[in-house]
Structures are given as structure tokens and as C-alpha cells.
Specification:
The complex is a heterodimer. By secondary structure, chain A is α+β, with helices and mostly antiparallel strands. Chain A has a domain at 20-126: OB fold (Dihydrolipoamide Acetyltransferase, E2P) (Beta Barrel), CATH 2.40.50. Chain A has helices spanning 2-19, 26-31, 33-36, 133-156, and strands spanning 22-24, 40-54, 57-63, 68-74, 89-90, 93-101, 112-122, 125-126. In chain A, the strands form two sheets. A five-stranded mixed beta barrel of chain A has the order 2-3-4-7-6. In chain A, β2 (40-54) and β3 form a beta hairpin. The relative contact order of chain A is 0.15. By secondary structure, chain B is mainly α. The longest helix of chain B is centred in the middle third of the chain and has 29 residues, at 183-211. In chain B, α5 packs across α6 (134-149) and α18 (372-390) packs across α19 (411-437). A two-stranded antiparallel ribbon of chain B has the order 1-2. Chain B has a domain at 1-174 and 485-503. Classes of the chains: A alpha+beta, B mainly alpha. At the A-B interface, β2, β3, β4 and α4 of A face α3, α15 and α16 of B.
Chain lengths: 157, 503
């Protein structure tokens, strides 16, 4: 009997948040904000910039390539997230489910998601930015020419 | 105002001074080069080394070729032509590192971002901003900081120890206040004021950044860049969400303080810093700014409340007031997504935003727009003319306004102010028309045109790398025209027209 009750409670309170969450893009969140306001959504993207810890909760900014969306998540929930995307690395790819706010009352009107579930889909990785040797040679040649002009300008003084 | 008819001989000193400015900009590239190297961004460091060496070569060749003309006295036309042409050539050379970085779709997009930075507009066409290198971000914010204070005068005062035409070039950059008797000292004074605030502002934002969860080095860099942008009323930010990225009321309040101070007249700063604190209460630009901010805040609040856009006073302040004050000071920082303006704000609030962006900040500041001083002069002239009608014919009506000192309003000043405002309105109309001709709705086109004309940088979602090249080119020209307040570019156009006619 106890197991059945727990099962029912799970179905009533937890399943709707996951099973009935709409999968959305950042463009949906911005363009259909009024329609989606207060609903549970699932959003997937790359964590970018900084993981900003504010006590028990943390701000993440998650980008799906079109826009980055602010995500307010319990700090304990984001323990697996290590890498935020920057110039030298691609951030962790996450899927998160939570309540979408068009203008969050708690956060001064921010358009955000209050996460109830965060899942790490793929760990971040370092990105390569190869130097082009031709540019190095050209820079050296031009710098030598600059020095020649500088010497000429100074000698005329 | 037009260049001397003997333009053959005057082309050479103009080219010499353009060379000096180009050398200055090439030297400036050393700063992002160092930042890139410090953070191990070697590809970007090489791009900056290549860009700097090419820029220095061009500038050096111009200086060498026309060195004999460096002491030739420049007239008003030549001085202004130097400024306008230097901004254009400066745009072309400063776009080199952007283009080499691969962060822009075309050279035109790179030029757009440079002009947006120089003119402290803040609109951007950069791709994948959230993965930009520190070197490129340093360059973006440095350009807006230098552009805001006055690029040509800085370069000329640092590299040439003062030249005869420096005051004309200074006026050509849209500044005409003499803080000191000598223009070189005036330019240095402007830079001293800005550098004092740079230290203070970066410190405040650095601490705020760490308090909000950024690491110490990231908080420092973000603090430095956001300050450069705020003080210059620029609007660039290192992340695509702009100020919204930080999700921080503290960050928003600090930026408001610095961009409002940054939008004030440098003559006012100088007066206050030299002990004339009452100027803060008496100055006509402060009064004008207070009145327009109050009226437009009421209008924005009314519009947002009518459409029930934000829940509660805090949200109304952080979204409604923040965008308004950012637009009014022509900063362009945003704490909402661009399309939220279009989708949620409603016509009343957008109308107030357009007015705020067109009015802009103070004269002789880093801000754009009509300027509060001109609004005050036109309003005072209007009151005087109304009172002339009401009073007996024999009565002499004299109106004064206080700007650093009591100034008697004369017809010449009023006419000049009105002409510039009309030129801004005409440019805004052209910008709106250009947007509509490219297929965008009137509201979007008008909002973006006001942002470009006022050198603001707020976007309703129109500006992107996907807009037609012709519209990008129109926006570049409008940003350039509006920042230099028309006269310099008209002088350059007259100069080029005369050259063509002679051929």
C-alpha cells in the first residue's frame, strides 16, 4: 500500500514536470514568452561564460546557438557542470527542465528558467585555434618595414 | 567652413595628419595584442601583430611622404576634413583585426562594428559573441572608450605635442567646450577625467562581479570592459545577453551611475572637480536632462503598466527604467532581449524610447542625440518668442540660461541649435525610410533608426548580420554623420566634390 501511495505521489507531482514539459528553443522562449509563461519547459544548450554561484542557487547562461537564456538552479543540482563555453573551450552541453518565467518576479523581471532538473549531456572540450604561419611571416616583414620608416622619420629630425 | 579653394596644397597636410592618426590607432592595437598574449590566445595575438604592423606602415608612409607639411596652418575646412577622413580611414584599418579573427561575415560587417564602437553606438554584427577571445573583446571596448573621449584629438595631442589646427579637429569631433585656454590641455583634461573614473569604475564593477559569482580575473576584465562601455555611453558588452548576462541588480545600478555621469558635459565635470559644485544644480543641461527623464519615465511606466508587461516596481525599475535611462544617455546597455521591445513593450513605451534616444545626453560628452543643451536653448528661445508676442512691443525681452556661466540667448545660438536638431530629425527620417525600403515594419525601422541616429545601440531586433548590405552601409554613414554632428562630414564631402570638379 505504501509503495502504491509513493508511486501515485510520484505520478502526481514529478511526472508532469518531466513528461509534460515542452521542449523549446530560445527563439520559442522569446517569441512565445506570453504563451509559455509559467509552464514547465525543457531546454537544451551549451553553458557559456561563467557559472555564477550565489549561495544555495547558481546562475547559468545556456545558449542553443541563437540566444543564451538565464537559468536559476539549486547549486547542488549543477555539481556535474564544470565547463562554461569561452574562446578556448566549448562548454558543457546540458538539458534542463524547469519553470519558464517571461518576467520573473523574483529576479527583477528577467526572462529566465527556474530549473528543477539539470542533466549533463556532454562534457565540454578545448577548442583549437591554429596560427597561420603566413600571417606570422607577413607580420614580421611588415614590422621590419615599420622599423625602417621609423628610422627614416627619426633621422630627418 | 569649406576647405580652402587652393586644395592641392591643403591635401598634403590633411594626409599628413591622417597618417598621424593612423599611426596612433596602429599603436593602440598593442593593448589587445598584449591581452591576447597574456591569455595565450596566440592566433589572435598574431592577427593583432599583423594588423598593427600594416596600420603603422600605412600611417608611417603618409607621415613620411607629407612630413614637410606638418606645420602648415589648417583652416576650419581642413581641420574638420582631417577629423571626418581620419574617422573613415580609422574605421578601415581598425576593422583589419576583426576581419582576420573570422568573427565577422564580411569586411563591411567588421567596418560596421568599428564605426559602431568609435561612435559609441554599440550595435554589433559579430558572430558567436559568447566565444569571443579576450583580445577581440579588449579591442571592441577600447575602440568605444577612445571614440567616446575623442580619438583624433587624443592622437594629435599625444603624438604631435599640439598643432595649429587641433582646435578645429576637436570641434570636428563634436566637442566645442574649452575646459582650458589651450585645446591640448583641454584634451588632456578630458582624458584625465576619464582615466580617474576608469580606475574608480573598474574597481566598483570588479568587486560587484566577484560578489555576483565571477572569478577574480573574469570580474576584472568584465568590470574594465563594462566600465569603458558605460562611461563612453557605448553599449558594447562581452556577452551576447549584454547586461542581462549578469542577472544582477548591483551591476545594473553601478552601470546606471557611470553611464549617467559619462553622459554629462566634460565642462560640467571640470567645473565640479574644480570646486564649482553648485553647477550640478544650476546647469541647464542637468535641468533639461532631469525634466526629460522624468517625463519619459512616466510615459514608459504608463505604457508598460497599461500592457501589464512587468510584475511589480522592482521589475519595472530594472527593465523599464533601465532601458529608458540607457537609451536617454545613448548608452545602449540592455537587460532584456531585443525582440522583447517589439513583442511586449507596446507603442506608448516604444514611442517614449524613440524620443529618449533622439534627445540623448549632454553636449561635449561621450553621448549622442540632439543633446540636452540644444533642447534647452530651443525651449528658452521658444519661451522668449512667446513672451515677445505677449509683451508690449517696446519691451525688450532678454532670456538667459546657465551653462558654466550665465549666457544671454541670441538668435544665432538658437538658430544653430535648431539647425542641428533638424539635421538629426532629417537623418532619423532617412534611416527609418531605409529600414522600410529593406522590408522592415515602420515601428522596427523607426526604433532602429533612432538608435543609430542617436548613437545609442539599443536594438529592437532588426540589426543583425543578415540585414541587407545597403542597410548596413546606410547605418554606418548615419552613425558617422551623427557622431561628428554633420559639419565635419559636410566639409569632407565639399572637399571631395571640389577635387572631382577640378578633374
Amino acid at each position: 500500500m505504501k509503495k502504491v501511495a509513493i508511486g501515485l505521489l510520484f505520478m502526481i507531482f514529478l511526472l508532469p514536470a518531466c513528461a509534460f514539459a515542452q521542449t523549446v528553443t530560445s527563439t520559442d522562449l522569446i517569441d512565445r514568452a506570453k504563451e509559455l509563461d509559467g509552464q514547465t519547459v525543457t531546454f537544451t544548450g551549451e553553458v557559456i561564460g561563467d557559472i555564477m554561484r550565489r549561495g544555495d542557487y547558481t546562475w547559468l547562461n545556456v545558449s542553443d546557438g541563437s540566444n543564451a537564456i538565464g537559468v536559476w538552479a539549486p547549486t547542488e543540482m549543477i555539481g556535474d557542470i564544470q565547463a562554461a563555453g569561452r574562446y578556448a573551450e566549448h562548454g558543457d552541453k546540458v538539458s534542463l527542465t524547469g519553470v519558464f518565467n517571461r518576467a520573473c518576479r523574483e529576479h527583477g523581471g528577467d526572462l529566465d528558467i527556474h530549473a528543477t532538473q539539470v542533466e549533463l549531456l556532454a562534457a565540454g572540450y578545448a577548442t583549437e585555434h591554429a596560427i597561420e604561419p603566413g600571417r606570422v611571416v607577413l607580420a614580421v616583414v611588415l614590422t621590419l618595414a615599420d622599423l625602417g620608416i621609423l628610422a627614416r622619420l627619426l633621422s630627418r629630425k | 567652413m569649406l576647405p580652402n579653394r587652393n586644395h592641392e596644397s591643403h591635401a598634403k597636410p590633411i594626409l599628413y595628419f591622417i597618417g598621424v592618426v593612423v599611426v596612433g590607432l596602429g599603436s593602440l592595437m598593442g593593448i589587445p595584442l598584449i591581452v591576447a598574449a597574456l591569455y595565450g590566445e596566440w592566433k589572435i595575438a598574431v592577427d593583432f601583430a599583423l594588423s598593427a604592423s600594416a596600420t603603422l606602415l600605412l600611417g608611417g608612409l603618409l607621415m613620411m611622404a607629407f612630413r614637410a607639411y606638418r606645420k602648415q596652418r589648417l583652416g576650419w575646412g581642413e581641420g574638420m576634413t582631417v577629423t571626418a577622413a581620419a574617422w573613415f580611414v580609422g574605421m578601415l584599418v581598425c576593422a583589419i583585426p576583426y576581419s582576420l579573427s573570422g568573427c565577422y561575415n564580411s569586411y563591411l560587417d567588421s567596418c560596421f562594428d568599428v564605426m559602431s564602437g568609435f561612435t559609441t553606438t554599440g550595435l554589433t554584427l559579430v558572430q558567436d559573441m559568447d566565444h569571443l577571445s579576450n583580445g577581440i573583446n579588449m579591442w571592441r571596448h577600447l575602440l568605444t572608450f577612445v571614440g567616446g573621449q575623442g580619438m583624433v584629438v587624443l592622437v594629435l595631442t599625444v603624438l604631435t605635442r599640439g598643432v595649429s589646427g587641433a582646435y578645429k579637429m576637436y570641434v570636428g569631433e563634436g566637442k566645442d567646450e574649452r575646459l582650458m585656454p589651450n585645446v591640448v590641455h583641454t584634451a588632456r583634461s578630458i582624458w584625465q577625467i576619464s582615466l580617474i573614473y576608469l580606475g574608480l569604475g573598474t574597481l566598483c564593477l570588479w568587486i560587484a562581479g566577484m560578489a555576483e559569482g565571477l572569478s577574480a580575473d573574469r570580474a576584472f576584465l568584465h568590470g574594465l570592459w563594462i566600465f569603458m562601455s558605460a562611461w563612453s555611453t557605448g553599449g558594447f558588452a562581452p556577452m551576447s545577453q549584454n547586461i542581462l548576462y549578469y542577472h544582477s541588480a548591483l551591476y545594473e545600478i553601478i552601470t546606471i551611475v557611470f553611464f549617467v555621469i559619462g553622459s554629462f558635459n566634460f565642462a560640467l565635470h571640470h567645473a565640479v572637480l574644480t570646486g564649482h559644485k553648485r553647477e550640478l544644480i544650476k546647469n541647464v543641461e542637468i535641468i533639461s536632462f532631469t525634466v526629460t527623464v522624468t517625463v519619459l519615465t512616466l510615459l514608459v511606466t504608463l505604457g508598460l503598466m497599461r500592457d501589464n508587461v512587468y510584475p511589480g516596481a522592482v521589475a519595472m525599475f530594472r527593465k523599464g527604467f533601465y532601458q529608458l535611462i540607457s537609451g536617454h544617455t545613448t548608452t545602449g546597455f540592455m537587460s532584456i532581449y531585443a525582440r522583447q521591445f517589439y513583442l511586449e513593450w507596446g507603442d506608448v513605451a516604444l514611442f517614449a524610447m524613440i524620443l529618449a534616444m533622439l534627445i540623448g545626453g549632454s553636449a561635449c560628452s561621450t553621448a549622442g542625440g540632439f543633446k540636452g543643451l540644444r533642447m534647452a536653448v530651443i525651449f528658452t528661445a521658444f519661451r522668449r518668442d512667446v513672451s515677445r508676442v505677449a509683451l508690449p512691443e517696446a519691451t525688450v525681452s532678454v532670456r538667459k540660461y546657465h551653462h558654466i556661466r550665465d549666457v544671454v540667448l541670441d538668435d544665432g545660438v538658437a538658430r544653430s541649435a535648431l539647425l542641428i536638431v533638424i539635421a538629426y530629425i532629417f537623418t532619423f527620417t532617412l534611416g527609418t525610410l531605409a529600414g522600410m525600403l529593406c522590408g522592415y515594419p515602420f515601428g522596427m525601422s523607426a526604433f532602429e533608426a533612432a538608435s543609430v541616429t542617436g548613437n545609442v545601440g539599443l536594438s529592437i531586433g532588426l540589426t543583425s548580420a543578415a540585414i541587407p548590405w545597403a542597410l548596413k552601409a546606410v547605418y554606418v554613414v548615419i552613425m558617422w554623420l551623427a557622431r561628428l554632428e554633420f559639419m565635419s562630414i559636410l566639409a569632407l564631402a565639399a572637399y571631395v566634390a571640389m577635387k572631382v570638379k577640378k578633374k
